[in-house]
């Protein structure tokens, strides 16, 4: 309406010989037309988003639910407890997606976006838990290698002391006993506190 009105005003100004008013009316109609094109583009984008949400919402919610359950299982099955907040966030997004789908008024686009976010967040939790478990496996392998090296060193020291029974004093034997005690303590801490 605004564009038509400014075109009519511009024609009247041109017919009346007022070129300045006609130019202003032409500029105003161009601006109104640009706004109308922008609004039509926005409507087209929103329509496409709504169509995508309608067609993909059920599947996206199902995937998000499966991923949140997988993340819950992964977190429960590991000592990697720093993912609890992320898991809670994924759960909350999934619940919000279901609420947006079922609400009055329904917001399918929001529900679809939240379901996709829940799915992504849950996948990130599963990946973080897997990375934590892999890191822990690598740490335990390194600990096992260090323990084996320490065992070999104490075994060699013990063989050396035993073969020179008369030439070795109490100090060396005490050091060997302390090394065995430290090795035993390290073995006992391996599964309890791998970082120690």
Task: Describe this protein's structure.
The protein has 196 residues and is mainly alpha-helical. 86% of the residues lie in helices and 0% in strands. The chain is built from five helices and no strands. The protein has helices at residues 2-15, 19-76, 84-102, 108-163, 170-190. Helix 4 runs antiparallel to helix 5 (170-190). It is elongated.
Q: What Rg, in angstroms, do the CA atoms define?
A: 36 Å
SS element count, helices: 5
Structural class by secondary-structure content: mainly alpha
Q: What percentage of residues falls in helices of 4 or more residues?
A: over 70%
Low-confidence stretches: none
Average pLDDT number: 87
Global geometry = elongated
Helix and strand pattern: HHHHH
Specify the biggest β-sheet: none
What fraction of the residues are assigned to beta strands by DSSP? under 5%
Count of extended strands:
0
The end-to-end span amounts to 76 Å
The quaternary organization reads as single chain
In short:
This protein has helices at residues 2-15, 19-76, 84-102, 108-163, 170-190. By secondary structure, it is mostly helical.
Question: Main attributes?
Answer:
196 residues, mainly alpha
List strands and helices in order, with pairings.
Layout: H1 2-15, H2 19-76, H3 84-102, H4 108-163, H5 170-190
